[in-house]
Specification:
By secondary structure, the protein is of the alpha/beta class. The chain is built from seven helices and twelve strands.
């Protein structure tokens, strides 16, 4: 049984993880951490990490970039693995995470969906084969309450394609309203759509001469992200210190 501390437990994703964890026999959430108290949670919720009394084996972080320093410090202090699913992280945040991974196991992913991470594997292969004769565009759709654009997942897909072809070879073009010129081969177009209650959809379009290839993933519920986070937790538990990605799950 893996005992989990859930950071950001009162948020939408935190609540989904709480519900999904109730049906698992291999793990349990023993405590939560959030900026707001919650007396209705099925476990103690703390607003201060220093007050946590429960022993935990692993941390799942689904919160906000501003909380990273605190939760990463707690993981290092307790020498516990941490799954980081928080989006909107800066290069400075990512440097902190990579430094911490030298002492503890860390799994970082902008999207906890197993399907999305399989999509990333597929588009890397497609890009290696098609680049040069196909243009690559990424279109992502989310609900009208999402603040960041493009999504962290869209950027993760673009980064994976870029790395698969040649590190930092391709440039990212966001929408096209500010540029009145023809598209060049060394571009990845990234487009964000916001509306309604769309949980999330990501499409990678490979456009060639007289043919199109689309690889698409559609999220129908936030539960898939919760299940993915718990899958990541069971994968990371017992691992040696290091920096891990969701794609590593497919290779185990």
């Amino acid at each position: 049984m893996i005992n989990i501390l859930l950071n950001g437990c009162n948020g939408k994703m935190g609540q989904h993880i709480t519900q999904c964890a109730r049906f698992r026999e291999d793990l349990t959430i023993v405590a939560g951490l959030d900026i707001r108290p919650n007396e209705n949670a099925p476990y103690p919720v703390y607003t201060n990490a220093a007050d946590i009394k429960e022993k935990f084996d692993l941390i799942v972080d689904f919160s906000h970039p501003s909380a990273l320093n605190t939760i990463l410090g707690l993981a290092l202090e307790r020498k516990t693995p941490i799954v980081i699913a928080t989006t909107g992280l800066t290069d400075e945040h990512k440097a902190m995470i990579e430094k911490a991974s030298k002492e503890i196991p860390v799994l970082l992913s902008a999207n906890m969906s197993l399907g999305i991470n399989l999509l990333i594997q597929l588009v890397k292969k497609a890009a290696q084969i098609l680049y040069g004769s196909f243009d690559i565009e990424i279109i992502e759709k989310h609900h009208n309450q999402k603040v960041d654009a493009p999504s962290g997942t869209a950027l993760a897909i673009a980064d994976a394609i870029n790395a698969a072809i040649a590190p930092n070879h391709l440039k990212y073009v966001y929408d096209r309203h500010s540029s009145n010129q023809k598209r060049t081969r060394d571009e990845i177009g990234i487009h964000a759509i916001r509306g309604g209650t769309i949980t999330g959809e990501h499409t990678v379009l490979f456009a060639g001469n007289d043919e199109l290839l689309e690889i698409r993933h559609t999220s129908l519920s936030r539960n898939l992200f919760a299940e993915g986070a718990l899958k990541a937790a069971t994968f990371l538990y017992g691992k040696e210190p290091g920096f891990y990605r969701m794609q590593d799950i497919f290779e185990e």
